From TrEMBL:
Binding sites annotated in the UniProt record for N(1)-(5-phospho-beta-D-ribosyl)glycinamide: 11-13
Domain of life: Bacteria
Entry keyword annotation includes Transferase: yes
Protein name: Phosphoribosylglycinamide formyltransferase
Binding-site list for (6R)-10-formyltetrahydrofolate: 64, 89-92, 106
Catalytic residue list: 108
Entry's EC annotation: 2.1.2.2
UniProt xrefs under Gene3D superfamilies: Formyl transferase, N-terminal domain (3.40.50.170)
SUPFAM superfamilies associated with the record: Formyltransferase (SSF53328)
Top EC class for this record: transferase
PROSITE patterns given in the database record: GART (PS00373)
């Protein structure tokens, strides 16, 4: 199954997906990386692996709809069947999300439904959470609201700062994102019409 990864920055989750897909037994192949930020570090990294890496900046287009049309054209041209958002920092329109319903997934650095949105590690610490973590979910219209495919919990340690906590959560992200992508690519999970995750077997 062909996969396109959408990023805005560092791209370490993209890197984890690329690394996992190098394994001959992995059921998905990363065919394209698209960033809305030309300076995203992940673009260079993808090219080092011989993967097509495109910058499609929002500022090159008069409207959000025109920008999304350009992204859709690039995704279609890539032949990707699955879209993996990996630190793509732009909210996608309802039309975009519906087009890829059940085929687009995202990684989020909290145990959803706790802490959707930004600054998740700060907020988990401020709330006094003893457990935090990360989630891979199908993308639906509400931000960070789609059905959950996989999660990993990370204990909050005494003395954790947002940065130390983020670093441990990121390691967990790099474990569960390839796992969740493989589940989707193998057909072990799908999104039903009423936006629920259904697991096979
Ligand atoms: C990750 O924490 C991801 O969960 C969040 O943005 C960050 C992206 O990091 N959505 P990277 O670009 O994958 O290194």
């Amino acid at each position: 199954v062909s996969v396109a990864v959408m990023i805005s920055g560092r791209g370490s989750n993209m890197g984890a997906l690329i690394a996992a897909a190098l394994d001959a037994g992995f059921p998905a192949k990363i065919v394209s990386v698209i960033s809305d930020k030309p300076e995203a570090k992940g673009l260079e990294h993808a090219r080092e692996f011989g993967i097509e890496a495109l910058a499609i900046p929002r500022s090159d287009y008069p409207s959000k709809a025109d920008h999304e049309a350009a992204v859709i054209a690039a995704l279609d041209a890539s032949g990707a069947r699955i879209i993996a958002l990996a630190g793509y920092m732009r909210l996608l329109s309802g039309d975009f999300v519906k087009r890829y319903a059940g085929r687009m997934i995202n990684i989020h650095p909290s145990l959803l439904p706790a802490f959707p949105g930004l600054a998740t590690h700060e907020r988990a610490l401020a709330a006094g959470c003893r457990v935090h973590g990360c989630t891979v979910h199908f993308v639906t219209e509400g931000m960070d609201e789609g059905p959950i495919i996989e999660q990993e919990a990370v204990r909050v340690e005494r003395g954790d700062t947002p940065d130390t906590l983020a670093a441990r959560v990121l390691e967990a992200e790099h474990r569960i994102y390839p796992m969740a992508l493989a589940m989707l690519a193998r057909g072990e999970v799908r999104m039903s019409g009423d936006n629920r995750a259904q697991f096979a077997g």
